[in-house]
Task: inverse folding
DNA sequence: AACTAATCGAGACGGTACGTCCGGTCTTGCA
DNA sequence: TGCAAGACCGGACGTACCGTCTCGATTAGTT
């Protein structure tokens, strides 16, 4: 066996990556810079992360600690909370810088694409399915709708606001929650 | 004065760029490869496009030839057509490869960000405003709603489906048109 | 027929070349810079000079207007005058910058090498032969020695002083004249 | 600390440079070609040599391993040996190709000029001073003459023969040794 | 006086090399 | 075996220069 890995090194890498992402964006991020700021060697990074993308992924898409959405008692409330969670995630400085870059890079790497999908999309859809199930149980919805479509309706506008329009998503959660809940029930 | 630029060179650059984007994606795109395929010198590229990003932008975001959306007679019809136009644009091979990369790179360049916003977002929003104005005139809507929000509702789910979920947007236009029209009128 | 060449353009090219050679050396000389300073187009240069090297050659090795060396009445005097002429040529700002560069470039071009040899070496050797013939006629020398060797003895130390040692050749003509004259007669 | 430089890489660079100089001359020498032939990356070259010129210098002006000239017992013998050493150096394929190019390029770079002077001129002059000192000790010379001048007399004709006249320096050492020795003692 | 043909300044063209920068791998010596 | 330091290969970047070419506008000599 030999010497065990130093967990302080793990953390130093992720912290340095987040800092540099916030300061210089995804394009300006270099592995050498991460190593220098973390005061470690490059080998220590590549021992943990196979590529730069995986390192960024690990640092910025804090894997899936999205908690199961609390039961607020109504579909509207539940949706609003979930949208707000997505907004919060997407507007953290590191994630805001990393996500578009990752979205671009994963198109060349099915392996990373799957990883990203699992940690990001699948988690959100799981929460969504849970929430929709509750609405069905409550009688707010006759049957659970297509999760992919609802996810697109919920996550899409957040992305469009932040990454396309480059605007702040303040107040978006409430408005979007109302619209989606209305679309699911009313129509 | 002096020798005028050769418009066949302009076109050769854009065509080569589109071809290589479709074949190898954004990450695999090389300025040297574009020059070689277009059978031109790199200088001819950099004389027209300050950076690789601007070249890709010019090639893939075929600036704004989005026509004013035809009047189909109803808000639902108009919206469906507009969504379909966005879907078509976003699923063309070159654009599909280029847009996520550009979205990532523009975060480091306000200049390119503004360019992208103008050619992409502003154009779509103009069409949208036109279309909403017609609905107001028809009496389908009491007053024109927030264009940013409607744009996010319209473009966001397309992006989420294609780039986040990595799924085909077949049939999305109809479903999304119905949902957004319903949200605007019904609720 | 057609429009005749403008001789002011000829001169402007050579003047600009000499100026830029004096200011920036051979390595820093560009054809574009010559055109700009001369306020002419590049085509006007290439209509007159096939390559940059030939342009420099024409500008800095003012072809062969080395006059036949005057008869000073003695081998020593004649040699001193000839050495001084070489020194003067080699220390003019443009020539000083151009000659090493040309010497380097002609090694890849037999055509230019021959041109340079004719305009530079052959001219000096002709003067030398003339001068040695007079010395034989005077009885100072029994027979005319190997011109190549004497030329190397005369021109070589000038080159070594200026280009190898990078020193001023002040006073070199007298000392070198004496040494070579001594070597030819005494030994 | 860190990984030490690989001395095989050093040698591979210099060997490749010498080979390419001999084959294609100074003008045809490319840093990429050196890297390819040496089977190394360009970075490994630029880590060692700041510019292409310095690389060529290191490869072709094999720094100064000119040994102190052996004592042949006479000024004539010593001079002949020293001239022959200069001839040998200057006619090695790599050096013959490199020296004129370097002589041209150093005129734009005082730093490289100083380097070249030290490795080439100073070394030859040191050998010369040694040799002249011995002649004084032997009583062949009354006092040691100006080293710059003697150096110009010794190295200059070699350069003139090889680079100006573009002739082979065969037999030059004996003839030049005799002439210079004669000039120093006889006159 | 009109036509012809070569010139002019300006600057775009293809090609090639430069020196820099990064990603991912490998190699030191120390702990 | 892990670690910091840093060298290694490969390959793209954006710049610069060469020699050629194409514009529209002159400027002679020829009809």
Result:
């Amino acid at each position: 066996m030999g010497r065990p890995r130093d967990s302080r090194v793990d953390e130093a890498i992720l912290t340095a990556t987040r800092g540099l992402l916030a300061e210089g964006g995804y394009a300006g991020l270099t592995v050498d810079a991460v190593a220098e700021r973390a005061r470690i060697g490059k080998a220590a990074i590549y021992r943990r992360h196979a590529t730069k993308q995986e390192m960024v992924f690990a640092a910025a898409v804090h894997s899936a600690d999205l908690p199961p959405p609390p039961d607020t008692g109504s579909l509207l409330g539940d949706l609003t909370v979930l949208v707000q969670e997505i907004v919060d995630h997407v507007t953290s400085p590191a994630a805001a810088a990393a996500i578009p870059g990752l979205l671009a890079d994963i198109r060349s790497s099915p392996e990373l694409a799957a990883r990203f999908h699992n940690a990001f999309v699948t988690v959100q859809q799981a929460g969504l399915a849970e929430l929709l199930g509750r609405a069905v149980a409550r009688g707010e919805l006759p049957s659970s709708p297509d999760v992919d479509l609802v996810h697109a309706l919920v996550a899409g506008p957040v992305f469009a606001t932040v990454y396309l329009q480059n605007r702040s998503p303040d107040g978006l959660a409430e408005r979007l929650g109302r619209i989606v809940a209305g679309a699911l029930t009313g129509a």
